Amino acid sequence: MHSLMDQAVRVITGLGEYVREERKKLKVDEKGFANFVTNIDIEVQNRLMERLGALAPGAAFLSEENPYFEPDSGKPCWIVDPIDGTTNLIHGYPHVAISVAYVDGEDRFGIVYNPFDGELYTAARGGGAFLNGRPIRVSEAVRMEQTIIGFGLPYNRARARVMFRAAEKVFATCQDMKRKGSAALDLCHVAAGRLDGFFEVDLHVWDFAAGCIILEEAGGRVTDWLGRAIGPRDRKADVLSSNGKIHSLLVSLVQSTIE
């Protein structure tokens, strides 16, 4: 599994130069209101499917731009978000990631790579979590007033109301809140102790699969807003993550805002 992850890392980081250079000649299409896809999303996905496919013949792919494979089919599966943070990419805001998880039964690993700052998060089940090869751990915060909490906003504007209510409730109890627009990186920032928690509604599995593996290996916890377990077999979820120490506090705060 580690050998496969190392090979996948080389494939993913090898796409960094392409993303940086192609950003200068971006082509953008709109999938829905404020929901975009670019030539980079499509080309990165195609290259990942070709090159990762060669590393694990027979494994299936589930991707944001090809979301048709059912991950509970029993096959090994690559779960890919070719560009997490497409709107950020379009605007030149460098909080962008290539996010890849590999799941084969109970064996799994996650890779999240920001091609603009070179930060590479990796974790394999049971092996710890790493940022550019150095071990990372979640923060030690135990009280909400010690925390910085990340949050996201959904494409479905009808669900934004519950997010804003929850954010207001959490903000009343914490030091600060951050919204940056890449769930994969936000989960990794919890893993690295930069954030103490992160939550968002309507995330797809390609948004959270790799980040969840990395965060859990760093000692954190990921559930839905009701405190129920989620994982790479869940196609969509309202995600709540933390350093584990404030998890029940954060769950109780957001639960009270659910419609």
Protein topology:
Layout lengths: L1 H12 L2 H7 L5 E5 L2 E4 H17 L4 E4 L13 E8 L1 H6 L5 E8 L2 E7 L6 E5 L4 E3 L2 E2 L12 E4 L8 H12 L4 E3 L4 H9 L5 E8 H13 L3 E4 L11 E7 L4 H9 L4
Parallel strand pairs: 3-4, 10-11, 10-12
Antiparallel strand pairs: 1-2, 4-5, 5-6, 6-7, 7-8, 8-9, 12-14, 13-14
Helix pairs in contact: 1-3, 5-8, 6-7
3D structure, described in words:
By secondary structure, the chain is α+β, with helices and mostly antiparallel strands. The chain contains 8 helices and 14 strands. The chain has helices spanning 2-13, 16-22, 39-55, 86-91, 160-171, 183-191, 205-217, 247-255; strands at residues 28-32, 35-38, 60-63, 77-84, 97-104, 107-113, 120-124, 129-131, 134-135, 148-151, 176-178, 197-204, 221-224, 236-242. It has a 7-stranded mixed sheet with strand order 3-4-5-6-7-8-9, with helices on both faces. Strands 11-10-12-14-13 form a 5-stranded mixed sheet, sandwiched between helices. Strand 6 and strand 7 (120-124) form a beta hairpin. Helix 5 packs across helix 8 and helix 6 (183-191) runs parallel beside helix 7. It is globular and about 45 Å long. The model has no long low-confidence stretch (mean pLDDT 91).
